[in-house]
Amino acid sequence: MTESGRPRPLPLTVGMSDGGRLSVLRYPSRTGAPAPAVVVITPYRKESAMHMELLAGPIAEGYEVLVADVRGFGGSTGAYRGVLSPREIDDGVELLEWIAAADFCTGRTALVGGSYSGLNQLLIAAREPRGLRCIAPWVAPADTYRDMWKRGGIPSHTSWGAGVFLNSQRPEAQEAILRAFYQDIVGTAFDGETFRATSADLASIRVPAFFGTGWFDYFLAGTVRAFQALAGPKRLQIGPWSHEPFLAEERRWELSRWLGHWLRDTGEDPCAPEGNAVLWCVGAEEFHTRGGWPATSGIDWWRWEPAGGPVTVPVLPSATSVPPPPPTDVHLMVDVSTNSGFRLWGEAAVFDSAPCAEPVRLLGPVALHAALVTEGCADFDLNARLSVVGADGGVRQLTEGRLRASHRALDEHRSERTPGGEVVLPWHPHEAADPVPGGEPVRLVVEIYPIHLRLSPGERLRLGVTLTRSDESDVPVDATLLPETFVLLPRA
Questions:
Q1: Which of 191, 185, 223 lies closest to 84 in space, CA to CA?
Q2: Alpha helix locations (H) across 169-320?
Q3: Which of 54, 154, 216, 484 could make an SS bond with 330 (beta carbons 3.0 to 4.6 A apart)?
Q4: Tally of CB atoms within 10 A around 19
Q5: Alpha-carbon 257 to chain mean position
Q6: Closest of 133, 91, 441 to residue 258, by C-alpha
Q7: In angstroms, what CA-CA distances link 37 with 6, 27, 135?
Q8: What are phi and psi of 118, to 5 degrees?
Q9: Cα torsion for 82, 86, 92, 98, to the nearest 10°?
Q10: pLDDT attached to residue 332
């Protein structure tokens, strides 16, 4: 036993079919008898203390717990073939099947983990390895282009490659990691095979999946999309959290219940359709349980027109040209460490709704239909933030969205609409750039991440907007936000 009371981890090396070897730490079950196994596969070093946030519960509950470095990282060897490569997913399948057959395991396994270690669960689960009974992806993207590396067509998480470079001890892997990330991912502007091959085929996943995330997480939209797309047993929990690895007690309890049901056949079915979504309501400050996620066709849409007339908005050289937004109670280290920009940009123009006369509850996606005209700017990025302004004037950030203007084309068949025909969940193909015509109106339909909010009397919504150049010039120009601009809000 260690000083923390946890079993001392045992180092293992597991051979892969191509000659690579995965380095694994095994925390053996305290019972000494074979037990179900809970597994994390990570590029963030298996020895990292952050994994214990998630795994302390399963260790205390007597599961076999194993944490493995992906190939090329930590102690794992093998040719590195790119971020979430098919070979890396093969490794995950082979590792799980090796664990299921080991004498310390009952033959039942579960995958858990967050972010990268949440997306690799989806990719591995689609392969249905023997013994895998359930997965629990936490704050996980589903589409590597839209959720992860190019949100709205705009490069995101560009510091990630440099950070994970330091997690590899092998010079040949380090070179491949930098090339794969900064050349193949950051250097590729449009969606294509590189991103599609590493995105989850959600329709093919039949393994029970428990999705967890927070309303302030930058992968929130991908998590909700994944939950909706799965046809098999599933559960969703969204709390008042960001992307930080620290787990609230509600999350620990949900994970314990989930693993107990699928690995030990205990407790009631957590995927019962009438109560498989547990959603925190901002403003009410409490969890609500409901059956699934609301369909866009069943929402009473509130159309808010924030601009009463033409409004001049500067198109700035960079998002940092505007002072940062008010402090937030969400952990800032997540944004800084990944350069995600989720709460790092300020607002060049703000628009407030009228104060609520009575309580209003909102649940679902949000869409901004921005109509703009500009001169002398061939392309720009639009960042939009939705906040609540209290009766005392205090501001609380809620959610955000972004879109590169040249990527404004819509896939009409994949976009979702209100019963009145307005796009509320846009699907941008991100396959080509259409420069912004000078002096002509353009419409940008921006997906703003979903909300669950109770507005009290006297409270207002605030739309904050920042435009930054993404063409080859850094000369400041102005755009005009037209009165045809509107926001669609999901009134519950």
A1: 185
A2: 171-178, 193-196, 220-229, 249-264
A3: 216
A4: 9
A5: 23
A6: 133
A7: 16, 10, 12
A8: -95, -45
A9: -130
A10: 66
Which residues face 444 on adjacent strands?
370
Residue 143 is encoded by which pair of tokens?
Answer: 């589409």
pLDDT single digits (tens) 20-34? 999 999 999 998 899
Q: Which two tokens stand for residue 214?
A: 């927070």
Token pair 């969204």 in the structure block, residue? 238
Q: Which two tokens stand for residue 23?
A: 């380095």
DSSP labels for 388-404? EE-TTS-EEEEEEEEEE
Query: How far from each other are the two terminal CA atoms of the chain, in whole angstroms?
Result: 51
Residue 287, burial from CB neighbour count under 10 angstroms (0-12, 13-18, 19+): middle
Place of tokens 């664990």: 99
The tokens for 61 are: 């509950």
51 or 335, greater pLDDT? 51
Strand partners, 65: 27, 38
Evaluate whether 314 touches 467 at the Cβ level (below 8 Å).
yes
pLDDT tens sequence across 152-186: 999 998 888 888 888 787 888 888 889 989 999 99
pLDDT value for 166: 80
The residue among 61, 83, 106, 76 whose CA lies nearest residue 16 is: 76
Q: What tokens does 234 get?
A: 């599933």
Q: Which amino acid is at 415?
A: S
Place of tokens 């705009």: 154
Distance CA 257, CA 41 (A): 22
∠ Cα 287 345 425 (to 5°):
55
